[in-house]
Amino acid sequence: MNDSARARILARIRAAVADAPEVPPPDDRAYLERHTDDGPAALLDLLHRNLADYRATVHRTTPTGLAPLIATILRGHGARTVVVPDGVPDSWLTATAAERRRDDGPLTAAELDGCDAVVSGCALAVAETGTLVLDAGPAQGRRALTLVPDLHVCVVRAPAQIVPSVPLALPLLDPARPLTWISGPSATSDIELDRVEGVHGPRRLEVILLRE
């Protein structure tokens, strides 16, 4: 398009909108902070559904059933070694025969790659998006611990750690901490939409909703 043609087109646009009224921009877009006002039980169900939709395997249990459930999960995946971040209660792993590896030293990338699983807690879980948030706090450890092993077993305390939405989660998190947002097992797709799991993190994600 040459300059004269562009000028004619722009002149026609200006003439067409010359009498259009001025529309001031809105002062407040009034975005919703959450899309549900349901109580803790409904939020737990919503989180469960969305985690499963992202291909995580989801379990529910009480404190007395937690250790046997973790042992069953690890045994079911053939996990013989498990990384245990600082702050994970010993009671979580009393029923498992897997060798426990603490992050003393700390563990090298090669050592982590040689571990079959990691068991961790989380900072928060977002019900509307099925997202786990880790911030390297207690029972979580540094980011590499939950990204390198092939199996991640994550315990979410319900209802204390479940929030409805991302806007309500952000004020509860410290932006200075290393935040990891997890929505299902690590996966990517190429241009032909062939899905490959385990590229950027654990290939298998097992989430335990611990009803306190």
UniProtKB/TrEMBL annotation:
InterPro entries: FTHF_cligase-like_sf (IPR024185), LUD_dom (IPR003741), NagB/RpiA_transferase-like (IPR037171). It comes from the Bacteria. Residues 110-210 form the LUD domain. Pfam families: LUD_dom. This is LUD domain-containing protein.
